[in-house]
From TrEMBL:
Stated name of the protein: Flavodoxin
Matching SUPFAM superfamilies: Flavoproteins (SSF52218)
Gene3D superfamilies membership: 3.40.50.360
Cofactor: FMN
Keywords in alphabetical order: Electron transport, Flavoprotein, FMN, Transport
Function: Low-potential electron donor to a number of redox enzymes.
Amino acid sequence: MARIGLFFGTDTGKTRKVAKMIKKKFDDETMEKPLNVNRADPDEFASYEFLILATPTLGEGLLPGTSADMEEESWEEFLPKIDDKDFSGKTIALIGLGDQEGYPDEFVDALGELHAFFTERGATLVGSWPTDGYEFNHSEAVGEDGNFVGLALDLDNQSNLTEERLNLWLSQIASPFDLNL
């Protein structure tokens, strides 16, 4: 088994695309292939010491799932399956996708939901990201320090910045993830 689990939820395929971009940078001993959480086994998910988790925000700030009018299950249905897991000793980095122009009042809110869920279960969360360069009104993913609680990506309006932001963020989490970049 690889050291890092890479899991995502998706609706349009953009989050899967980002997960594949990440995986291309690492070998199979370092990182597992990206897996949609609707196919994830809760025990296998919880067995990783290091996790990179990615989610879009749907509609009015929702985690992806059936209540957000998705045809398939996603984070909304997966989180209750791992509700009783202890993530103490685990290091988790988060990525959130959103549309800051179309949804400026709930930009990457789902990122904040994942952060709260795993923090409450003892995980060490790394990879906060500055809000500079984004234009939005409000986000539940902005922490007390004024930064996003994970990497925020807007493939709708700033796709030209995705690769650069991703590379900088991966170099930022390299030390806590014990990565050689």
